[in-house]
């Protein structure tokens, strides 16, 4: 790893990928609120088939960056691309390639998981036997069968999180952007989500925001780290340390207040 800036060339397969194989790309993304800069010149690329962790302390700019990448927030400066589509210019085409799980994502709480996901599928143009197959698949993969016809308002936080995960995966997108996907889950459920992400990574590109370093070591070969709205590290997970203690020390050294 280089350096003075702590930002290295992307590792774990990213450096060898051509720009045309980029599935997620941030080019100088900046977001200003008056004089406050939520992010400044954030740039990185995630190639096809990679699981990349997006780390940083609370308030560092992770969620803001994810919202700009997905088109939910317009950047003050810079561009976001998904599967080669400029999100600002081709929002609908980009969204067809994207599955997005925001932190504390909104749900239709008066509906059941079955009803909500069927409605969302139909809105996306998924119909007939294809929709039935996808509903059965996400119900199984997200362990929702036992609450499939129960009002979402009656579900625990963990089950609500799994409904959100099912929503993100329903249309079989090529790109998944997941903001704290294991939030609110018990250890068994966390293990299940990790196994699911590992399985999905065989065919999809995944950007994963999390605070759990054990999770990063388990499923993410690469880390992009942000602090105070700027990228402070981009490299292989192994470069952060050989174990969670070393990773935590490196995290603190890169994100501590100066």
3D structure, described in words:
This protein is of the alpha/beta class. The protein has 2 domains: 1-97 and 174-258, Rossmann fold, CATH 3.40.50.300; 109-172, no CATH class. 33% of the residues lie in helices and 25% in strands. The protein is built from 8 helices and 10 strands. The protein has helices spanning 62-70, 91-96, 113-123, 128-141, 157-169, 187-200, 213-219, 244-255, and strands spanning 22-33, 36-47, 51-55, 77-82, 85-86, 98-101, 175-179, 205-209, 222-227, 230-236. The strands form 2 sheets. The protein has a 6-stranded mixed β-sheet with strand order 6-7-8-3-9-10, sandwiched between helices. The protein has a 4-stranded antiparallel β-sheet with strand order 2-1-4-5. The protein starts with 21 loop residues before the first strand and ends with a helix. The relative contact order is 0.18. Residues 1-5 and 7-20 have low confidence and may be disordered.
């Amino acid at each position: 790893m280089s350096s003075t800036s702590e930002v290295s060339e992307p590792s774990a397969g990213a450096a060898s990928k051509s720009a045309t194989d980029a599935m997620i790309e941030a080019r100088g993304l900046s977001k200003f609120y008056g004089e406050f800069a939520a992010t400044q010149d954030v740039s990185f690329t995630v190639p096809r088939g990679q699981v990349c962790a997006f780390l940083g302390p609370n308030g560092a700019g992770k969620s803001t960056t994810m919202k700009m990448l997905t088109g939910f927030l317009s950047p003050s400066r810079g561009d976001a691309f998904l599967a080669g589509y400029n999100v600002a210019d081709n929002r609908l085409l980009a969204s067809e390639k994207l599955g997005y799980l925001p932190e504390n994502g909104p749900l239709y709480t008066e509906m059941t998981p079955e009803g909500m996901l069927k409605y969302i599928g139909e809105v996306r143009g998924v119909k007939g036997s294809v929709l039935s197959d996808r509903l059965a698949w996400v119900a199984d993969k997200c362990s929702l069968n036992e609450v499939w016809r129960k009002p979402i308002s009656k579900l625990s936080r963990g089950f609500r999180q799994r409904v959100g995960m099912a929503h993100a995966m329903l249309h079989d997108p090529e790109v998944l952007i997941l903001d704290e996907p294991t939030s609110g889950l018990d250890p068994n459920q966390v293990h299940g989500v990790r196994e699911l992400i590992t399985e999905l990574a065989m065919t999809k590109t995944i950007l994963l925001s999390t605070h759990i370093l054990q999770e990063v070591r388990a499923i993410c070969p690469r880390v992009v780290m942000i602090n105070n709205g700027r990228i402070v590290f981009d490299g292989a997970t192994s470069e952060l340390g050989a174990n969670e203690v070393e990773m935590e020390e490196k995290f603190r050294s890169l994100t501590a207040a100066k």
